[in-house]
Specification:
92 residues; mainly alpha
Length: 92
Amino acid sequence: MTNGQGPPEEELPIYLKDFLALAVVSLVFGVALAALLRPVEPYSQFVFTAFSGAVLLAFFLFVPTMAVRLFLEERTAEDESAPTDRGNADTE
């Protein structure tokens, strides 16, 4: 540890489903973005615009995608570890 740095944070694993969700969202919205910018015709400029939009969206959506997954994992872990008194209530 140099310069007063703390211990390394726990790493967040990246799963295949994360990449698939990111790829699908980026591709769909990349094509939608290209449709807004260019006429929808099967020529190279539209395909290039769609690909550029998808890459741009994948770049900017990677961190929010991982943050949402981390939030959902923490919430499910919290729900599983929360004590419940179902069925143990005394009726006096």
